[in-house]
UniProtKB/TrEMBL annotation:
Cofactor detail note: Binds 1 zinc ion per subunit.
Broad class of enzyme this protein falls into: lyase
Record field: catalytic activity: hydrogencarbonate + H(+) = CO2 + H2O
Protein's name in the database: carbonic anhydrase
Keyword Phosphoprotein recorded: no
Lineage: Bacteria, Bacillati, Bacillota, Bacilli, Bacillales
Record keywords: Metal-binding, Zinc
GO MF, any single term: zinc ion binding
Matching Pfam families: Pro_CA
Cofactor dependence: Zn(2+)
Organism: Brevibacillus parabrevis
Its EC number(s): 4.2.1.1
PANTHER family in alphabetical order: CARBON DISULFIDE HYDROLASE (PTHR43175:SF3), CARBONIC ANHYDRASE (PTHR43175)
The keyword Metal-binding is annotated on this UniProt entry: yes
Gene: ytiB
Length: 192
């Protein structure tokens, strides 16, 4: 059975058996928290369990590497919407050890794009338009630095309220252990 067909068949039973009832909550995060994490499959269930989060506790935003690549991109917009429209009051950026974004090779990725039908002409057009695919596809060298950079991008955003604490953590995808990279409370207390 193809993935979509399998999903839809399961969903019919899920709804018919009213299994959704145990997940019902409001659109407002109970813990008033936004979590930006990597999209790594190992974190799908591990991260919320390791942080003691249940359905309805947080707004969860994901990107490759938990990177905020542009201060006015969709990741930052999602964080700001969670704060201004959904009553979130804190942000936690969670990177992880053994992240694929630390090993991404833009040349290899572009070769795979060519194999899947993207043309050299497309690369040329993008380059002519000023888009450096090698830079755009680059992840990071050290995950700790990447988490710090994302925290800084969020914290220094001109539209972020000054009283919003922004934290940075790393999670071990094997054990769930959390390590603090940036304690946003300490930063707030130091600026007071």
């Amino acid at each position: 059975m193809r993935n979509l067909d399998e999903i839809l068949a399961f969903n019919r039973d899920f709804v018919a058996n009213r299994e959704y009832e145990k997940y019902q909550t409001t659109k407002f995060p109970d813990k008033r928290l936004v979590v930006l994490s990597c999209m790594d499959t190992r974190l799908e269930e591990l991260l919320p369990k390791a942080m003691n989060m249940r359905n309805g506790d947080i707004k969860h935003v994901k990107s490759a590497g938990a990177i905020v690549s542009h201060p006015f991109g969709s990741i930052m917009r999602s964080i700001l919407v969670a704060i201004y429209e959904l009553n979130a009051e804190e942000v936690i950026v969670v990177g992880h050890y053994d992240c694929g974004m630390s090993a991404i090779d833009s040349k290899r990725t572009m070769a795979k794009m060519l194999e899947k039908g993207v043309s050299e002409q497309t690369f040329s057009t993008l380059q002519h338009a000023g888009i450096n695919l090698h830079k755009w596809l680059h992840g990071f060298d050290r995950v700790e630095d990447s988490v710090r950079n994302s925290v800084e991008t969020i914290k220094k955003h001109p539209l972020l309220p000054a009283n919003v604490d922004v934290h940075g953590l790393l999670i071990d995808p094997a054990t769930g252990r959390l390590d603090v990279v940036v304690n946003g409370y300490e930063r707030t207390e130091a600026s007071e």
